[in-house]
Amino acid sequence: MRSWLTVSAVLVATFVVVVVGAHLAVGSVADRVFRDIDALPSHAVAIVPGAGLRPDGSPHDILSERLRCAERLFESGRVTHILVSGDGGSHDHDEANAMRRWLVARGVPEASVQMDYAGFRTRDTMERAARIFGVRDAVICTQGLHANRSVYLALDAGIDADVLVARGDDWFTFGARLRERAATVVAVFDALVGTEPRFLGPRIPIGSVALTPR
Fold it and tell me: What is the pLDDT of residues 162-184, one digit of tens each?
């Protein structure tokens, strides 16, 4: 009995250390998270990670706020290109095209929007941004809940990145917040072991500006 209790205590302690360590590692990039667009440095590219679609195929409210964030950056001249990255795994669920349509309908030129159909998770989005699309300098448009993890994974991919926080944090459920804590631990594990994206492919540089660090 005592042996079982000892093993259990060691397992619990290990779990706590892993979780706390992961959150400290990801939290160390908090200085790259901005809520004021005027305080944000200019970047070459805005990256918009997917966040789900409505049944009619249009962006979910949370995703719409990320896109509105990218639209503001483009209109203010703080970025010249927007990379929309999401799950394009089926004809009925095509986040990248839905995001492109949203932006183009609001005046962003099609030539300034690059689509990534294989952004199945944040790790894939950032690795593909760097390795497929040649992004070295970017601002990520996402909610505060995901901000630190997004920057952490972008930096690990070799992108000099900041976040401009989009509206919508108060829409996340308790379950979503718990999942984000688990995703933080997975993000650190992926960075440590070098987890590969589900798909890679030939390079498709967004443009010469996207390859030039600030």
Answer: 999 999 988 888 888 888 888 88
